[in-house]
Amino acid sequence: MGAAVFEIKQFQNQIKGNVGEWSVSLLLKSLPDSWVMFNNALIPTSNVNTLTEIDLLIIGAGGIFLVEVKTWKGSFTAYKDKWKRREGNNWEAISNSPTSQSIYHQKMFSQWINCLIPNLPDGVVKAPVIFPVAKWLGVTDCSVPVLQSIPALLQMIVSSADCLTPMQVQVIAEAVEDLTIAAKSVEISKPIPKPKRENLTDVETVEDLTISAKSVEITKPITKPKLIKRENLKD
Question: Which residues contact 182 (CB under 8 A, 6 or more apart)?
């Protein structure tokens, strides 16, 4: 049983990897050279020292696209960000809403990038969800675009009006690639040498004395997202 479960997971990962590789290759080869794409980009959230992951982060003249890729098979329906999956003759609620997740990514990225680069155009950050292998989708009044194919995503990207300059694209891409996070300030208790007993009047009090060092702000780098280059793509 354990071996069977392992093989199923391996197969699912292989499907996801193949879909991801094919979609990345198609998208990047179809976009102008000035566009930049990252796989599995990490961005900070409003919670200290926490990050959230973007499946595909695409940056170009038409804006910033935070693409959530769902390699879910089957039939799905959504109304106002509440999702259900078809199970036999029934529709079962999905607790982790893909569109709600994308809304969160959009909000966090917008807050972060607008602090680094003020005065970006309104609506520059878009967060579509794509289901490249789903059998059927029925979506109504969701907060972000929901697409069923890579060509549909590409069409959305290329039809977006230009809103970023080449310099802005470069600065945003560098900010994503060079992201670091600061750890919380840490109070460090530092023991001092114990004085000799013959010089003390209240031995126990002085023996146990410690002093606190200043709070230390620790900056630690995170793993850089994978910057996808055209020369590394297979035909």
Answer: 49, 217, 218, 219, 220
